[in-house]
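[Automated response] Your request has been received and processed.

Submitted sequence:
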Amino acid sequence: MAAEGAALTKELAREPSVQQASSYWTLRSAPPLRSDDRRQALVLARIAGNEDEVARVDAATGSYQRGRNVAPPTAGSTRFSSQHGTWLAVVPSVEPISRAGERLVHDVRSTPAPFETLVTGPSAELVDSRDSIFGSLPLAAAIIAAVTFALLFL
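Generated structure:
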């Protein structure tokens, strides 16, 4: 398990958009980063982007600002992990419904990961809604044009 964990961390660190990657296996077995049975551990990565857009990242291992642990885990931190995986709460310092919020969603989603990554929240909903609307716009315009043509000339 240790070899796979270290390899995953090194693989993530080689990605162009990742500025730094650390894990239980690369930090000399840091206890707060692993599960009690030592079969799972947290891998943290710092992605390229504007650090001023993120106020804080909350995780099962505590809270982080600018890549540094600023608060230890609390009883509430357990909500960030389950038997199926873990999640992080990226707390933006920018208005969620803004270009900066959209940029943050794109930065997080475009970061390569060897596992499925999902992004939710107001900024992600805005990005997804826009993509859905503008993705369907050409089809809607074609339908309107066809119906108009049929009504006018048939």
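Summary generated for your ticket: Residues 122-153 form the longest helix (32 residues). Residues 2-153 form one domain.
If you did not submit this request, please reply to this message.
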